[in-house]
Amino acid sequence: MGRTHRVPRGAAVTEGDVTCYAIPKREPLIAEHEAFRDLVLGHSQRTATLHDGLHAVLVANAALHASHTGTTTAVPTPEQLHHP
């Protein structure tokens, strides 16, 4: 349940009680990978395609490359990986 407290004068809300709710903020890339993991393990009712999995791997690979090089790294689409 939320926590109710009196807001001090001069704050964004000038009078009355305010109820604050703790809403966890998850890192989006971690949430994406955990959701895909849960799908693969059968712990979710959603479905994932191979395309979804490939995209998750491409994003992670681009993030690793960017962290190692200190540069911006484009995430290729799965279609760009097809070589004739």
Can you give me a brief rundown of this structure?
The chain is mainly alpha-helical and 84 residues long.
Give an account of the 3D structure:
- This protein is mostly helical and 84 residues long.
- Helices cover 39% and strands 10% of the residues.
- The protein is built from two helices and two strands, in the order ββαα.
- A two-stranded antiparallel ribbon has the order 1-2.
- The longest helix is centred in the last third of the chain and has 20 residues, at 50-69.
| Model regions low in confidence, pLDDT < 50 over at least 5 residues | none
- How many distinct helices? 2
Strand order of the largest sheet: 1-2
Task: Determine the mean pLDDT.
Answer: 79
Q: Characterize the overall form.
A: flat
Element order: H for helix, E for strand? EEHH
Helix share bin? 25-40%
Structural class: mainly alpha
Q: Distance between termini? A: 57 Å
The oligomeric status of these chains comes to single chain
Radius of gyration: 21 Å
- How many extended strands? 2
Strand content: 5-15%
* Biggest pleated-sheet summary: 2 strands, antiparallel
